[in-house]
Amino acid sequence: MAAITLGRAGVRATVIDRQAEAGDALCGGFLSWRSAKRLRDAGIDLARIGAHPVHRLALFAGDRSATAPLPETAFGLSRRALDTAMRERAAVLGARFAVDTVRSIAVGTVQGERHDYRTDAIFLATGKHDVRGLSRPRIAEDPALGLRIRIAPSSELRRLLEGRIELHLFDRGYAGIVMQEGGSANICLAVRKSLLAEAGGSPWELLQMLGSENEAFANRLSFASGCEKVDTIGAVPYGWIAAKTEPGLYRLGDQGAVIPSLAGEGMGIAMQSGEMAARCWVAHGSGGAAEFQKALRERAQRPVRAARLIWQIGEHRRRGGLLVRAAAFAPMLARLAMQASRI
Question: What InterPro entries has UniProt attached to this entry (predicted)?
């Protein structure tokens, strides 16, 4: 989004990516209604690229369930489809792409495997992956891990998931399930390291263990062949927000603020921070990085705190059940929580 915003201001950005074509990143397969609006404003047609409309939230904890309408229409879309569309839009606006793997970053210099890039402004958008020299702190005693599998389309799966996003709460974790383009189901989990350890360190054993304790989740997993690849990422610092930065370094997305993924607002923060950073650079140049980081921190605190509170409640079996019960009794509470966790 930063490259698109810069392009609209007449600035040609250089985008460094280790892949020539967009990959299917683990996180970011759900687009909130605010993210959808930002994309439309940027000139990206979600219907054209196959985004699946989402109108309702379904909550599960043990044998309890509840549904609530979303404030506005959201979408399920793979990162491959989204990132491809955003790359194309940025290229139309003048962005140049360099295929390289970044090894380290210092003030004014990005060191890649193929080249060094010297610039007065660096927009750091590496998602949940850190770059040497700019690591985020990991202090949790039982850190959160991310996992993702994609299940092939089927008519029965479509019947279950069409028009909604599901959030399955369980002890020390949760899973989000949403249909994406083509009818495939994207299942993303955030779990504590100790839970994976109880499954012998095997992601598939963990999924089966969770299914044995959660009937609705097991039902969704039953559509998997068992041969699907499980993507993983370790030690995600959910709740962290950058308090400062270095001259000329604009921290975007998860490098600036890591919202718990159950909120479905990670892409919202990525897009909002990209727009803010680009506009700040156009107005103030490299000297605007500190001002931008402060502004992002102030703007991200409320949604990150709201999502972290929901996560802390939901990852405990009894409290997660109470959360679902409250949503069933008063769907407006779920709606307020969804609104509070938007940037």
Answer: FAD/NAD-bd_sf, Geranylgeranyl_reductase
